[in-house]
Design a protein that fits this description.
Strand content: 35-45%
Order of helices and strands: HEEEEEEE
Distance between the termini: 55 Å
Radius of gyration: 18 Å
Oligomer: single chain
Number of helices: 1
Strand order of the largest sheet: 6-5-4-1-7
Length: about 100
């Protein structure tokens, strides 16, 4: 019987572990009629603003982290998935 080399086995485990996590669909809610939710380059107020998102914007949520007591989620725009950043989880709804 032929044995599979250990490095091939380890490589397949690593590759399987690198597949992207499925995204949860979410919607911007609570920014207000005259305000925009800021999509930021990183989790926290100190990161640059990429763009503003009005209520109702559909997003794909990847993962969330806590920064200085605030929950921030990494998201991408559903209609433009290459546009990614972080938003405050307080303004996300699964609708």
């Amino acid at each position: 019987m032929r044995r599979t080399p250990l490095f091939i086995l380890l490589a397949s485990i690593l590759i399987a572990g690198c597949t992207p996590m499925p995204a949860d669909r979410t919607v911007v809610q609570g920014a207000g009629p005259d305000e925009l939710l800021k999509l930021r380059a990183g989790p926290g107020l100190g990161h640059r603003v990429i763009l503003g998102l009005p209520d109702g914007t559909s997003l794909n949520r990847r993962d969330c982290v806590t920064e200085v007591g605030q929950l921030w989620c990494r998201v991408s725009l559903t209609d433009a998935p290459r546009i990614t950043g972080y938003v405050s989880a307080d303004y996300l709804s699964t609708r």
